[in-house]
Amino acid sequence: MRQVAARQADVLVVGGGAAGLMCAITAGQRGQRVVVIEHANKVGKKILMSGGGRCNFTNTGTTPQNYLSANPHFCKSALARYTPWHFIEMVDRHGIAWHEKELGQLFCDVSSKLIVKMLLDECAAAGVQVETGCSIEQVQHDDSGEYRLHTTHGMFHAPALVIASGGLSIPSMGASGFGYELARQFGHAVLPTRAGLVPLTLSGKHQERLADLSGVALPVTASCAGQDFTNSLLITHRGLSGPSILQISSYWQPGDNLQLDLLPGRDALQSLQQLQLERPAAELKTVLGELLPKRLAQRLCEVWLPHLQPSRPMRQFNLPQLREVAATLEHWPLVASGTEGYRTAEVTLGGVDTDGVSSTTMQSRHVPGLYFIGEVLDVTGWLGGYNFQWAWASGHAAGSVA
Ligand code: FDA
């Protein structure tokens, strides 16, 4: 253990991820002495691995509707005060080239390493001290209002403590339950957590029927709990993935009905009737193989439609039979059994209850000088750059006052 004298700061930030670094930069720019305490060997590991290595760093279409929270109003103030354009201004100032993929999603042209470098350069310019490989052993809040952090790098103390330790997803990247434990230590409620933006698993006959179709992808509309997403679905050897499934996974809970429309934006019955008129001699299974990936169409015929004898020509199908085929395409009856869990989840739903936190400053309503920002809070974004935008915005809100 490295022995050093107790170090005084104005703001201690626990967690050198997206939210913690943004908070540190903002507070440092105000002249505050800021120390970031990160237990991993480097900061920003999730930024590095995000967006397939190119970091989907924001979404220009960000609105409060893109977030899940027990209090859907909580995110409004911070998001309104630090918009995607504020972050884009920083990215542009550092000469980082970016492009828009789909639906306002902005990615680096070259590498997410540039975003981490930018944040560290901003930290250095603002005089922020970053302690990596530093584990916290104890947190105390004394009568004078100071927070004392006993760490493997010695003792740090400051009147403001910002918890930016993230959620539980991807434990191998440094994720820990630290923020939740600390919140409870200081009297905050923590709402139940679960994995979000995560592949869904199938089991039993559902899994057996699709396991050998692993790699098949197609556009679908996935719906659950009153929410729907149209995007691609990918069959995996354990179940279902792809953007539409990751998105809906944040709304799905065990036992919920997952609806999958395999012909998004089209009326399946109308499409089948049109094909019946145009190609009466074509077999149903051939026609389905043109509407869907061939291997999936074949499996639908074998497993879900065999009683309709799909090798018959289209002209032989009456209206009720076409209706049944259309219903199978629009409501593919698959039952998800679970999720792949925190091991592969991009985010953690639930977390520190926002009822105990000010939505303008992110400061605790119970304990002065204590702040919660980023994913540790019960605010979770959709897939597409919204989670980083929340990290930047909430980090900026706390850093402006801490
Ligand atoms: P974050 O998890 O980033 O940082 C928390 C930090 O605290 C970590 O560095 C951790 O090591 C540290 N820490 C934890 N416990 C500690 C302790 N006890 N002491 C000290 N330090 C501690 N979002 C998005 O908008 N666009 C994208 O492209 C992606 N892509 C993506 C890919 C993958 C694979 C994942 C897993 C996630 C994404 N995300 C994403 C989500 C995004 O990464 C996530 O929402 C933010 O990183 C959350 O930022 P935070 O700073 O709150 O936590």
TrEMBL record:
Recite the UniProt keywords alphabetically. FAD, Flavoprotein
The Swiss-Prot or TrEMBL record lists the needed cofactor(s) as: FAD
Q: Where is the RsdA/BaiN/AoA(So)-like Rossmann fold-like domain?
A: 10-400
Which branch of life, at top level? Answer: Bacteria
Under the heading InterPro entries, the entry gives:
BaiN-like, BaiN-like_dom_sf, FAD/NAD-bd_sf, RsdA/BaiN/AoA(So)-like_dom, RsdA/BaiN/AoA(So)_Rossmann
Q: Which Gene3D superfamilies match?
A: FAD/NAD(P)-binding domain, HI0933 insert domain-like, Translation factors
List each copy of the RsdA/BaiN/AoA(So)-like insert domain by range. Answer: 194-347
Record's keyword annotation contains ATP-binding: no
One Pfam family per UniProt: HI0933_like
Q: Does the keyword Flavoprotein apply?
A: yes
What is this protein called in UniProt?
Answer: Membrane protein
The lineage, from the top, is: Bacteria, Pseudomonadati, Pseudomonadota, Gammaproteobacteria, Lysobacterales
